[in-house]
Amino acid sequence: MRAVELLQNRRKDFETLVIAQDSVSYGQRLPKDDGWGKRALKALDLDQTRLHLHGLKPRDEYLKVLQASTAHVYFTEPFVTSWSLLEAMAAGCLVIGSNTAPVREKVDDMATGILVDMDDRDEVAEMIEWVFNNPLEAAEIRAQAREFVLEHFDARKVFAKKAEYLRALVALD
Predict the structure, then answer these.
(1) Which first-to-last residue range defines the signal peptide (predicted)?
(2) What is the value of pTM for the model shown?
(3) In order of start, what are the domains of the chain with their CATH numbers?
């Protein structure tokens, strides 16, 4: 959100859509009626007419948002990645992700996405703006990301490999 604040000041055409629950999934829970989103709104000078906060959406609506988005900002501490990272890549949405081990497992910087230091608001803002300013290069990254997901995580391939593996395990008895 600190990067959003910078970009709102730089670009009058910058709109941000946040689809999330303001809750903690990992780590210590925040007090009741508190959340990271609420804290950001209090601490930052954000133009809330250009900041659109929504709760979770049904999958079909979420996919439409991904497909229409310029970028999907995906940050995680060193935990496993969630399904939404691959979902965004498969939908052809350019991922700007945290330069952390689990994200690096899926995102090759400037090939299948963009890696940034999630604590460096200037770098995050710079790379979001790069996507706006370099549509042809961004389109190539989107295409490579989608191809990567289809090659490595397509359900038809993954489930076929799982079934083959399970048949081999059963045959060992």
Answers:
(1) none
(2) 0.86
(3) 1-56 (no CATH), 71-173 (3.40.50.2000)
